[in-house]
Amino acid sequence: MELNKDLVAASATPLVLAILAEGDSYGYAVIKRVAELSRGHLQWTDGMLYPVLHRLERQDLVAAKWGVSETGRKRKYYRITKQGLTQLAEQKEQWQAVDRTLRGIWMKAAMA
Amino acid sequence: MAGRGQNASWNLDEGGNGMNTPNDLAALEEQISQWRDYLRRRPGIRAPDVAELEDNLRGQIAMLTDSGLEPDEAFLVAVKRIGSLNAVSLEFAREHSERLWKQLVTAPDGDEPESNARTEALVVLCVALAAALAIKLPELFGLQLNGGDWGFYARNTSLFVLPLLTGYFAWKRGLHAAACVSLGVVFVAAAFFANVFPFIAKSDTLGLTALHLPIALWLVVGVAYTGGRWFAGNGRMDFVRFSGELFIYYVLIALGGFVLTGFTLMMFKAIGMDVQWLTKAWLVPCGAMGAVIVGSWLVEAKKSVIENMAPVLTRLFTPLFAAVLLVFLFTMVWTGNPIDVERGVLISFDLLLAMVVALVLYATSARDPQAPPDLFDWLQLLLVTVALVVDVVALAAISNRISEFGFTPNRVAALGENIIFLVSLAGLAWFYARFLRRHSSFASLEWWQIAYLPVYSVWAAFVVIVFPPVFGYR
Predict the structure, then answer these.
(1) Which position has the higher pLDDT, B311 or B226?
(2) Following DSSP, what letter does each residue of B364-390 receive, concatenated?
(3) Which of A23, B339, B432, B470 has its CA 20 to 30 A from that of B67?
(4) 19-58 in chain A: CB under 8 A from chain B
(5) Hey, are the CB atoms on A75 and B55 less than 8 Å from each other?
(6) CA angle B68, B72, B78 (to 5 degrees)
(7) pLDDT tens digit sequence for B17-36
(8) For B60-72, what is each residue's pLDDT tens digit?
(9) What is the sign of the dihedral through the CA atoms of A95, A100, A102 and A103?
(10) Which residues contact B449 (CB under 8 A, 6 or more apart)?
């Protein structure tokens, strides 16, 4: 099953924020984590993650800093900010609301 | 999509030999560096983004090779996972829309390391300062800019700045010493001819020298611009493009300069001081000189970044000029009024023809030589033909005037220029007609234009060198 494009785009922000809430990370690791968590259902084109990260950075939801990778190359690390955590909490509520609504209607349909 | 062709070249077709030999890794590095260069040229993507995406690419490749893929296979898969570069760069551009605007001076483009750009900025600053100060140098020897030595400055203006501009390009293009010396000799000769003649104050020949010397010397700048290889490749057409853009930049900088001058005067007036001496003796002349260098540098720095303005303006004004010239011709025929050849009118007709030649030249410089003829080409031919007719009428008027009132320097200069434009326009019309009837390629039209360029400068040099003595420095 492959997710609809709009849904992928809409879930990008909470997903990235949630992963960063687990701990600081960098682009490729975030992508790996997404694949892991969704068991391959969420297929991101790798290149698309970076503009999202940059947007979050501009909105002060994450902070970025250049570091060095294990192999000694330049790497940009991302960390979630306080605003990011607040935003994540809000998004969580919204998604849960959507989830509850859908669950309710589908449960009814299953019982009917 | 531009990305496809590039992808093909990444595809190394060596069969897998089961081991990651140093050769494999070197090939991988080569592929990555090609990919990086390619990515760097995308709009909206900056060097740090490339580094970030490269980190991702390397992560993917490492994971894929660990799971058993050959490096080149891993590379292809990893590139695919990054996604279509068009889509990705579009996404970057959407997030950083300001980048599409601000690329002008902020960052050096791509391949050039930042330190080079900084060195260049420093050199430009020094050269611009030198040009600004050079115009003040003669005052140390008692030649007053705003006083009675107007003639000296009029003759020599181009000599204050063009050698410096030439020097900048000689430095930038790494011109070898012999070429530098010969360009230097030309400037020395120019200074000689501009200053050795005993001009009568405010004479016609002095005015002609002031007007023609920059045109003659512009060719020298061109030689330095093309790195000493005037005849090789596209250098000449690039120089034409450069000249047009520089003109536009110069006008814009001058507008800014006017505003600055106006505010300076206004502010100091508000506290009861008249600083006209400052603006007249320093701000305007020094700014005018320095702006040539700074403008040139800006054109150099941005040439690949922003659409060139000169061709855009050309597209706008070609139809308008054609229409005005047509109306003018019809009116002249209708009313039967001959061109009244006053001195000022003569010069403006020459300027008009220069304008038409320039319009066609810039339209050519921006046109894809492979494209088939279109409506705009017909418009160009119309413009050229009408200008040709106007030129012939003006020529007849000048000859008339000369046979009636005799030779003066201005009349002969105007006559000469008219003939030069006549030949140029006739050539243009001929090549355009051939091109439109598909008898020859667009390239031959282009060839005619750039081959003809030195003629203007040679004629200008002729006016500077021969006219004053022939006409007795009147």
Answers:
(1) B226
(2) HHTS-TTSPP-HHHHHHHHHHHHHHHH
(3) A23
(4) 26-29, 31-32, 45-48, 50-51, 54-55, 58
(5) yes
(6) 80
(7) 445 567 777 888 888 888 88
(8) 888 888 888 888 8
(9) positive
(10) B240, B360, B361, B364, B428
Question: Would you state the structure tokens that stand for residue B206, as one six-digit string?
Answer: 């002095």
B51 touches chain A (CB under 8 A): yes
CA distance B25 to B327: 70
- Assess whether pLDDT exceeds 80 at residue B474: no
Q: Give contacts of A32 with chain B, Cβ < 8 Å.
A: 59, 63
Helix (H) or strand (E) holding B126: helix B114-134
Supply angle C-alpha B280, B198, B403, rounded to 5. Answer: 100
Of A50, A58, A69, the CB nearest to B53: A50
Which residue from B32, B42, B141 is spatially nearest to B96, judged by alpha carbons?
B42
Contact B55 A26 (CB under 8 A): yes
Spatial separation of the C-alpha atoms in residues B134 and B154, rounded to whole Å = 14
Q: Which residue, among B221, B201, B202, has the nearest Cα to B213 in the 3D structure?
A: B221
Distance CA(A97)–CA(A101), nearest Å, equals: 6
Residue of chain B minimizing CA distance to A73:
B55
Residue B17 tokens read as: 């030999």
Beta bridge partners of B374: none
Which residue is it, tokens 């000169």? Answer: B310
Range B267-270, long-range pairs (CB < 8 A, 24+ positions): none
Question: Nearest-CA neighbor of B88 among B131, B59, B50, B119?
Answer: B50
**pLDDT above 50: residue B439:** yes
| Spatial separation of the C-alpha atoms in residues B301 and B104, rounded to whole Å | 7
Q: Which residues pair with A65 in a beta bridge?
A: A77
Quick check: B83 and A5 in contact, CB under 8 A?
no
In sequence order, what are the residues at sequence separation of 6 or more whose Cβ sits closer than 8 angstroms to the Cβ of residue B245?
B299, B303, B308, B309, B310
Distance CA B23, CA B71 (A): 11
Q: Which residue type occupies B58?
A: R
Q: Give the residue from B28, B35, B53, B55 with the most A CB atoms within 10 Å of its CB, the best one to mutate.
A: B55
Instruction: Evaluate whether ipTM surpasses 0.90.
Output: no
Whether the CB-CB separation of B215 and B457 falls below 8 Å is answered with yes
Tokens of A26: 């960098």
